Amino acid sequence: MDPFALTDSSRLVSRARRIDDPSFRAAFEAIETPRVVWGAPEESTVIGGGAAATLTASGPDRFATIRDGADRLFASGDVHAGTEAARPRLFGGFAFHEAATDGEPWTSFPEAWFVFPRVQVTAADNGTWVTVNAVGPDVTATDVERRLDEAVTTFDALGAADREADDHGTDASDGTADPDRNPDRPGIVSRHRTTTRAEWRTGVEAAVDRIRQGDLEKVVLAQALAAELRDDAPRCAMIDRLRHRYPNCYPFLIETDAAGTPDAAGTPDETGTPDAAGAAFVGATPERLVSMRGRTVETDALAGTTGRGETPEEDEWLASELAADRKNGHEHDLVVEAIRDQLEPFTASISTGDRRIKRLAEVQHLHTPITADLAATTHVLELVEALHPTPAVGGLPPAAALETIRETEPFDRGWYAAPVGWIDAAGNGTFTVGIRSAVFERRQATLFAGVGIVADSDADEEWDEIQLKYRPILNELED
Ligand SMILES: C=C(O[C@@H]1C=C(C(=O)O)C=C[C@H]1O)C(=O)O
Fold this sequence. Notes:
Blueprint: E1 11-19, H1 24-30, E2 35-40, E3 43-49, E4 53-57, H2 62-75, E5 77-80, E6 89-94, E7 112-116, E8 119-124, E9 127-136, H3 141-167, E10 188-193, H4 197-213, E11 218-229, H5 235-245, E12 250-255, E13 280-285, E14 288-293, E15 296-307, H6 312-324, H7 326-343, E16 347-352, E17 356-359, E18 363-374, H8 380-387, E19 395-396, H9 398-408, E20 419-424, E21 429-433, E22 437-441, E23 444-453, H10 459-477
Parallel strand pairs: 1-5
Antiparallel strand pairs: 1-9, 2-3, 2-12, 3-8, 4-7, 6-7, 6-20, 8-9, 10-11, 11-19, 11-23, 12-13, 13-22, 14-15, 14-21, 15-18, 16-18, 17-18, 20-21, 22-23
The chain binds ligand ISJ.
Domain Chorismate-utilising enzyme C-terminal: 197-469
Pfam family, one: Chorismate_bind
Keywords: Isomerase
């Protein structure tokens, strides 16, 4: 239901209970659409299914509109979560640009969209929990408790089945640790790049000219790669592998529309079966935009990239070259300074950690953790609005960078490089930057990747870096 239609008598009821640890895949397959998956290195993994409520917004006030909607939704709460991790939360995100998500492949993704799942499965340190949520004028605690009993029975049976499969030596979780052992990639029939190498050189050189003229310091330029798939991408296996292959990243999957919406005209797709899953935005991002708990804020500056070595020695050598490189250091420092400046008005104190290397399967980045204490109680969306886009994905000065991005990129960024995350009733939350990602719509996947351009960037080197940044998703598609 639309929470903007909430009446004074509407209420939110949420109940949770511990369940018998089903595997990630069993829980994902059992849950209704639209689904969300959220993971973070120091947080519980959540799978959400169904929509007890959704919040949608657009235009310059979209952050405030979502915040108001969330406050109204949670204000009516009758919540018994049992444990903090199982408390009700909204999951969603925003488009990168204002007024941006009209065209393909983003037609199902509003400029701002959050879902309050009907069912949430949370794998926390103290076990796995199922939460059942409902919102509406007629909702009763008795109904929600009955649904919770049913959900617990379903998920407990899945947990028992997983353990039985383990006892018999069959791997119910399907060998998640080794991506090469899993042949269930859909395969790519054809690829289309939005940007040719010649166009890329022209765009990068024009940006470098602008930087040398002095009206721009840094801009992040991206490309998109549209891949037509032989089969539907198996979303469950894909997100499960991503979360194992990138343990220091933030895996996410967001389906905005529910089952049975073949297309706008209502005709089934070419296979004759309605697309059960709708569109999805999927990725495993290394970049956190912000997390807020009470008055404590944590964020990361992540910018500056090199590849991985074939041997540990080569890996170390690449990392030390990156750490010493002037161009990458400059690109990185701009991000650290901008994040500090953008957070400053909210904080009583800010501290910047030591610069280090964040190592991922295909690339290594310069990384600086930043922590702050807020001067007053704040909602995480205020921080999201203040920080997005950081110069890790936008540029400096922000207005000139956004104008350069819009003039140069021949495609719609949609939710790529934009905030994706969760909010709770207290206004706490974690948001990441939706990179290393793709949007899926039936058998079409559109992948996105970008690079920071500064005065001494080389177009061909930046082109190669983009190819590396497509790898996490391409590995999931190529058979
Ligand atoms: C824009 C992307 O990555 C960003 C750009 C980086 C860089 O230019 O070095 C590094 C990390 C990210 O902040 C992307 O992966 O699409």
